[in-house]
Design brief:
Number of strands of chain A: 11
Largest sheet of chain A: 7 strands, mixed
Largest interface: A-B, 25 and 25 residues
Distance between the termini of chain A: 37 Å
Distance between the termini of chain B: 41 Å
Structural class of chain A: mainly beta
Oligomer: heterodimer
Helix content of chain B: under 10%
Shape of chain A: globular
């Protein structure tokens, strides 16, 4: 079974530029998550989709971050314009349902904003 | 704001030593606790999903216990090996239906 795919793996951009990350979850998984992990902190949930609907985006900085999951399959997370404090690993994850079951993570997209 | 705390923050042990870490979480509205292992540049890997008070789970040399009444879980590694070096994350699910992670314990096992 293929795992959660993410791209790009690494990205370096200047502040005020934009960046987009792509995620393809495990086939059949209805729930998709984007987490932000800043060095020294635990992963923080940015947005959670159930199929193509948003379940929780309370911690998504909506002035600069946006995410979509068209057709309830793959997803894109965009940052525009980027700030220095956005330097982090962006982890995509998926699960079969909303709670309880194991959540499977991708390898992450490592962003450095200079 | 729900708080999930892990201790210690980092740990350095010799190969063959046994070790354990702690995850503390809110004792009310408990639904599940997850443990993950995250090696650098790899995907976080699920170790255990624990739901019942008193649960004990084991996977090879790694085991975990759960006390939902007092709000803690222990992760044990018996006879640590260099390949066990990783960050170990716990995550709590309460009634908000959201996985809340701790900051992790970074384990380094020296040969």
């Amino acid at each position: 079974e293929a795992g959660v795919a993410q791209s790009p793996r690494y990205k370096i951009i200047e502040k005020r530029q934009s960046v987009a990350f792509w995620c393809n979850p495990i086939s059949g998984h209805a729930t998709l998550y984007w987490y932000q992990q800043i060095l020294g902190q635990g992963p923080k949930l940015l947005i959670q989709f159930q199929n193509n609907g948003v379940v929780d985006d309370s911690q998504l900085p909506k002035d600069r971050f946006s995410a979509e999951r068209l057709k309830g399959v793959d997803s894109t997370l965009k940052i525009q314009p980027a700030k220095l404090e956005d330097s982090a690993v962006y982890l995509c994850a998926s699960s079969q349902d909303r709670v309880g079951n194991t959540i499977y993570f991708g390898e992450g997209s490592w962003l450095t904003v200079v | 704001i729900l708080n999930v705390e892990q201790s210690p923050q980092s740990l350095h042990v010799q190969e063959g030593d046994s070790t354990n870490f702690t995850c503390s979480f809110p004792s009310s509205n408990f639904y599940a606790l997850h443990w993950y292992r995250w090696e650098t540049a790899k995907s976080p890997e699920a170790l255990f999903v624990m739901t019942l008070n008193g649960d004990e789970k084991k996977k090879g040399r790694i085991s975990a216990t759960l006390n939902t009444k007092e709000g803690y879980s222990y992760l044990y590694i018996k006879g640590s090996q260099p390949e066990d070096s990783a960050t170990y994350l716990c995550a709590f699910i309460g009634d908000t239906d959201k996985l809340i992670f701790g900051t992790g314990t970074r384990l380094q096992v020296f040969p």
